[in-house]
Amino acid sequence: MDLLTRLSESLQGGDADQVAELTRQALAAGLAPKPILDQGLIAGMTVVGDRFKAHEIFLPDVLLAAKAMYAGLDLLRPLLAKAGVATGGRVVIGTVRGDLHDIGKNLVAIMLRGAGLEVIDLGKDVAPERFVAAAQEHGAQVIGMSALLTTTMPVMRQVVDLCRERGLYGKVKLIVGGAPLSAEYAREIGADAYCFDGVNAVDVVKRYLGTA
Amino acid sequence: MRALFDIASDDTAPQVEQVLQAQGVPGGGGRSRSPDDAPRRERARQLALQAISLYCEQAVPRGLFDELTADAFEPLLRPGEIGDSPLRQIYPDAGALALYAVTVGEPVSELIGRLFDADDFALASMLDTAASHGAELAAQAIKARWREHLLATGRLQPTTGIMEFSPGYCGWEVTAQQPLFARLRPAEIGIALNSSFLMQPLKSVSGVLVAGDKEIFMFDPEFECCRGCQARTCVDRINSLVAESGLD
Ligand code: B12
Ligand code: SF4
Hints:
- The structure holds two protein chains of two kinds.
- Helices cover 58% and strands 10% of the residues of chain A.
- Chain A contains nine helices and five strands, in the order ααααβαβαβαβαβα.
- In chain A, strand 3, helix 7 (154-165) and strand 4 (173-177) form a beta-alpha-beta unit.
- By secondary structure, chain B is α+β, with helices and mostly antiparallel strands.
- Chain B has one domain: NADH Oxidase.
- Chain B contains eight helices and seven strands; from the N terminus they run βααβααβααβαβββα.
- In chain B, strand 5 and strand 6 (199-200) form a beta hairpin.
- The A-B interface holds A 14, 51, 54-61, 63-64, 66-67, 70-71, 97-100, 103, 106, 110, 125, 149-152 and B 23-26, 30-34, 40-41, 43-44, 47, 116, 119-122, 124-126, 128, 168, 174-175, 194-198, 200, 202.
């Protein structure tokens, strides 16, 4: 079995130490960071996402695989930056102001990172201004917002409106998620998409970035 | 009567199976169809045990209850409430009512945050689940204290049942948190309310305890709020009320 296939399989098994070790070996063998990322780490995480979607593995398995992914990514990141390899895209994500429910947002951030995207996680209780400022500062292509309460859903509209005001609307894609939301609500507030889970979010964001 | 309590963290420790089930791990009740589940289930189980042990180290459960009359409770139901609800139907027939709040404290949430920051997602998520269950069990502990108090004051009959309701559930609007907090003053046990009616620390539960003849709780879940409700937790709650003896 070649090194990158072994890397992908170790990641699928959630073995962070092994992933770090194989990533080092791949670099030492002279492989460039980009194929290690694409054919090793991202390939492994894609299998994990698919198997989770098919109910073949459990949430802890996905989260252990994500940790393993980051163990490899931490070694590659400085090299990718040095080589001027662009990341797959940049997403600013957070749970909206007033809302402290963050489990879903965390999962989405993990899945997006696992797909090779750069994620700027603003945490929970995030004010509209911070979403927009972070998107501008980091040159993000996508803003992702999470809300689990009916009382905090309207904050999403405030973010959309602020994007209009600042001239970001249409340039930055706005995606929303959380149990009480729907595609209809997303349309009503002028967001670009509603995503029902992390795997769906990866599909949607990749489509926007033209990397699907 | 108003009473504040410290609760032993071990008394609010969730069962490993509870945590696994909430994480969707079979044995557990998850939906994985793969034949090679066993090692992954065992790995998840070890994580759950570790999370429960961390929970017991970090949790600082505290709670309080404060009794009130039906007349005093009525304004707490009102804010923004749409339509009828189980609570609105039940509370006028209650023999006794008490507002309550519990928290397992901030340190657990801080640890969850640190674990996420350290990329320890699986353990962080497991601990989050354990702490959510811990908060629920702390609420059950306060309910048990109130039950003892009702017994001691001669208000508990063999046919008495106690059911709890929280703002944000079953047609009781989450905005009711504000008048509830104004009356209950849970700041004394370290709980604050934010502008969207959420409590900090996150792992806190608030609501009302309703005591009365079990008959009053036998409602049909056909209220406006029941449309589209997938949780249907009322069914289990009513069943366990039927099963328990009021004087236990
Ligand atoms: C877990 C939970 C909690 C946990 C939160 C832990 C945490 N760290 O977040 C705890 C126990 C602390 C909690 C507390 C409360 N909660 Co709560 N909670 C839930 C619950 C059961 C599940 C939410 C969850 O984490 N689901 C699992 C994740 C994985 O799913 P998810 O969040 O939907 O995310 C997925 C998708 O939606 C999507 N997604 C989510 N965000 C995003 C963002 C983007 C950009 C994208 C693309 C996709 C996406 O992808 C995610 C991954 O698959 C919901 C009920 C529900 N069915 O949603 C109630 C719920 C949100 N809670 C509710 C309430 C009322 C409360 C309380 C106020 C109750 C009270 N009075 O005590 C308290 C508040 C506590 C406080 N501090 O004030 C209500 C809200 C009702 C309302 N009117 O708004 C709900 C809906 C329960 C209900 N009534 O049915 N809660
Ligand atoms: S069906 Fe849902 S909303 Fe209705 S009473 Fe039962 S749990 Fe509450």
